[in-house]
């Protein structure tokens, strides 16, 4: 049987908000057979499916002879479930983040190095047409090296986002807030473009009046070994989910991605559209359309026995940047709210 004819036996652990994206991608893939799904909440059992349902992932793994498991769980469960799968000889497609800390991420790296299991981290935005074309342009000899990178992630989260799933606001379970749950994709792309980081200076703060142990807003500057500089501003306190923006400057040119379109301003000052991403409608459009691409890449890598996917080693820099931002900020700053009347009164007094 050729690789093109092989079918991987796939399971999914965790049936939360992102799982439908995985389930659809698995069902649409010619090399995959969705064998089983698992969630401890049996009310999430998919209706109308013949797929086996479990509430214990260890039982699912013991009984189903799986080749691949997709992990779509709260952050603090990423490492222990990956460990169980990898030590059982099962390949892992892991939703971001890699881990809740750099120390734990190194344990994931050890699993990658010491087991036969492949572990792919779901940084699907690397496979967006806009980003792949940006990387292509930056690799051209005539395009001078990157000098600056800017990322903006200005989103909105209702308080219910946290209260309905309390792990999202608990340090021990989520790790960090916005920088790990929302803007980590932007941090990953900044790390890909910037390369090795020399230093980071950042502030983490809570602008929303929600009960939470983690930040909802962050600003940071990065200094890379290449000499390039980076800037990130990310928040969940915007009035809506605005487009993620990524800007890259070289000595003579400027590239930027906004609203799913890649633009280039050349040396003459003329602006050109270079690429556009696939459009995804609906409330979860910010997930993007590249899960299917990365999942297919990973399945192909399993069948061909290559490392042509987002490995743990390649995902480590995102966790490093997060931990360096937190170390720079030291604590989550909680600014006081001040009214205009208070301000004017203080000025007069």
Automatic annotation (TrEMBL):
SUPFAM superfamilies: Glyceraldehyde-3-phosphate dehydrogenase-like, C-terminal domain, NAD(P)-binding Rossmann-fold domains. InterPro entries: Gfo/Idh/MocA-like_OxRdtase_N, Gfo/Idh/MocA_Oxidoreductase, GFO_IDH_MocA-like_dom, NAD(P)-bd_dom_sf. GO terms for molecular function: nucleotide binding. Residues 138-251 form the GFO/IDH/MocA-like oxidoreductase domain. Residues 8-120 form the Gfo/Idh/MocA-like oxidoreductase N-terminal domain. Pfam families: GFO_IDH_MocA, GFO_IDH_MocA_C3. PANTHER family: D-GLUCOSIDE 3-DEHYDROGENASE, UDP-N-ACETYL-2-AMINO-2-DEOXY-D-GLUCURONATE OXIDASE. This is Oxidoreductase.
């Amino acid at each position: 049987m050729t690789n093109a004819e092989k079918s991987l036996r796939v399971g999914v652990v965790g049936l939360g908000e992102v799982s439908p994206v995985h389930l659809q991608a698995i069902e649409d893939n010619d090399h995959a057979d969705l064998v089983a799904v698992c969630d401890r909440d049996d009310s999430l059992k998919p209706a109308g499916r013949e797929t086996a349902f479990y509430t214990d992932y260890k039982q699912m793994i013991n009984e189903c002879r799986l080749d691949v498991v997709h992990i779509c769980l709260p952050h603090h469960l990423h490492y222990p479930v990956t460990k169980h799968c990898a030590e059982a000889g099962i390949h892992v497609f892991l939703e971001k983040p890699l881990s809740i800390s750099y120390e734990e991420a190194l344990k994931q790296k050890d699993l990658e190095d010491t087991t036969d299991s492949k572990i792919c981290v779901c940084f699907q935005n690397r496979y967006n047409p806009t980003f792949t074309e940006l990387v292509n342009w930056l690799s051209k000899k005539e395009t001078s090296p990157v000098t600056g990178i800017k990322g903006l992630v200005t989103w909105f989260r209702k308080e219910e986002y946290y209260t309905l799933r309390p792990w999202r606001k608990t340090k021990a379970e989520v790790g960090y807030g916005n920088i790990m749950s929302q803007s980590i994709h932007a941090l990953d792309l900044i790390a890909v473009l910037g390369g090795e980081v020399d230093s980071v200076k950042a502030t983490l703060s809570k602008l929303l009046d929600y009960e939470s142990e983690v930040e909802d807003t962050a600003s940071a500057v990065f200094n890379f070994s290449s000499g390039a500089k980076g800037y990130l501003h990310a928040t969940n306190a915007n009035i809506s989910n605005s487009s993620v923006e990524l800007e890259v400057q070289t000595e003579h040119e400027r590239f930027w991605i906004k609203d799913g379109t890649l633009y280039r301003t050349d040396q003459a000052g003329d602006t050109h559209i270079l690429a556009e991403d696939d459009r995804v409608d609906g409330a979860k459009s910010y997930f993007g359309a590249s899960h299917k691409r990365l999942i297919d890449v990973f399945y192909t890598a399993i069948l061909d026995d290559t490392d042509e996917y987002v490995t743990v080693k390649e995902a480590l820099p995102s966790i490093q940047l997060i931990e360096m931002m937190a170390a720079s900020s030291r604590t989550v700053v909680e600014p006081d709210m001040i009214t205009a009347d208070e301000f004017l009164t203080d000025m007069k007094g």
